[in-house]
Design goal:
The structure is a homodimer of 94-residue chains. Chain A has 94 residues and is of the alpha+beta class. In chain A, 52% of the residues lie in helices and 19% in strands. Chain A has one domain: Winged helix-like DNA-binding domain superfamily/Winged helix DNA-binding domain (Arc Repressor Mutant, subunit A), CATH 1.10.10. Chain A binds a DNA duplex (30 and 30 nucleotides) through helix 2, helix 3 and strand 3.
DNA sequence: TAAACAAGTTTATAAAATAAACCAAATATT
DNA sequence: AATATTTGGTTTATTTTATAAACTTGTTTA
């Protein structure tokens, strides 16, 4: 009847991050913070969770002399996102 | 950019309960438990939260000699449900 | 009469979400 | 030059949540 909602995606901020990454292929920490409106601390934690799950890849480097964190969605993450949408539909298409 | 997701609805079980009630106008505890697959304890807690928020009304009585809990969605709840859908869309607009 | 069942509720605990505090380096200010 | 502020984060602490387990109250069944 109702499909289970992936707990990793069923979180406001993580969903927002994934939503950005689905549409832009690559986004850095600052862009994600600004586009989601999240605090840096919260974003840092949620990026780590998505990364640990293999839903996004994270690349840390230096841009000039400042740290720079680039994120992109993985194929696993993309699939999970699509499945989450399918699952959500079972709560509405009736 | 992203609309805030009503925390009362952004919960798997509460969303399932609301989803049932949107479509059937009245449902009792047992029916909700069976149709959502939830445990009674969890359902009891979440029904109480939805009720406290004014999203559903709860009517307790006896059916024969057994307790009987009837739930229905309120207009407030219905509005909140629709707004939740609208908010969700901002995470998927493509 | 005791065991099992029904319909819930209460309580305990693990997991999440989030903000606050922190850090190291760079840049701006006095 | 010394101090303050900003940048780009991370770590820690705290409050909420979600959830299952245990419990309650009463009923039916063996």
């Amino acid at each position: 009847m109702f499909k289970k909602l992936d707990p990793l995606l069923h979180s406001e901020l993580r969903l927002a991050v994934m939503s950005v990454l689905v549409n832009c292929e690559e986004a850095d920490f600052v862009y994600l913070r600004e586009s989601t409106g999240a605090t840096a601390g919260n974003l840092s934690v949620q990026i780590e969770k998505l990364s640990a799950a293999g839903y996004i890849s994270v690349e840390k480097s230096f841009k000039g002399k400042k740290p720079h964190t680039k994120c992109r969605i993985t194929t696993t993450g993309f699939k999970a996102f699509e499945e989450y949408i399918e699952a959500l539909k079972t709560y509405f298409n009736r």
